[in-house]
Request: fold
Amino acid sequence: MFFFKRNRPSSYTDFSKIGLDMHSHLIPGVDDGATSIIDSVALLNGLKELGFHHLITTPHTLQDIHPNTSEILQKAHALLDGKVPDGIALELSSEYYLDGQFQEQLESDKLMPMKDKRILVEFSQISRPHGLEEVVFDLGIKGYQVILAHPERYLFFHKDFGYYQRLKQMGVDLQVNALSLTKHYGEHVKKIAEKLIEADMIDYFGTDTHHLRHIETLKQVPHTKHFARLVDSGLLKNESLLP
Reply:
C-alpha cells in the first residue's frame, strides 16, 4: 500500500509543500543567471507564484568564468534591498566549483555556507574530478556539510550508479534539480534523477533557476509522479535550512 501511494500520479500543483528553494541564480550581473535588477525581481516573482516563500540563492563561484568572492556577491545582493517581493525571504550563499579559487577561499575562511555550514558544490559534468574524496574529507574536518548540486547531471556517473552510494557513504548530501524531472536536460538525466529518487538518495530539492524560461518549464514539475514521491518520502531536508 505504501509503495503504491508513493508512486501515484501527483496531486500537487505547485512547490508550496517544499517552500524553500536552496539552489538558484537570482543575483543580478554576477554569473549566467539574472542579468539585471529587473530580471532578478521578475524571477523572484515567478518563484513566489510557484509556491516558494524562502530562497537561498547560490550564484556561481568559478575561477576564470565567474570568479566571485563573498564581497562581490554581497555587494550585488545589496542591489536587491527593498526590491524583494512581499512574502519572499532571500538569503545568499554560492554554488562553489571545486577548483583552486575554492581552495583559496576555504583556507582563508571566505566561504558563504548555508545554515550549519552546509555548502553547495559542483564540478565538471563531463570528467570525473581527481581527489574528490580528499576534498570531502577535508571539508568535513573543517565542519562543513557537503551538498552536491544536481548529481544527476554528471554524465560519467551514469555508467557507475554505485558511486552515488559511495558519495552517500562519505556523508555527502545530494540535491536534485527540479528541471531534471522534465526533459529539459535530456532523457538520460531525467532517468537518473528518477532513479535517485526511487532509491531514496535525494536530500535536497532546488530549482537551479537562471532565467524566465526555467520558470515556465518548472510549472510542469509538480504534476510529475517523481515529484510526488520525493515530497511524500519525508526525506527532504530543505526545511532544515530555514533560520
Remarks:
- The longest strand covers residues 118-122.
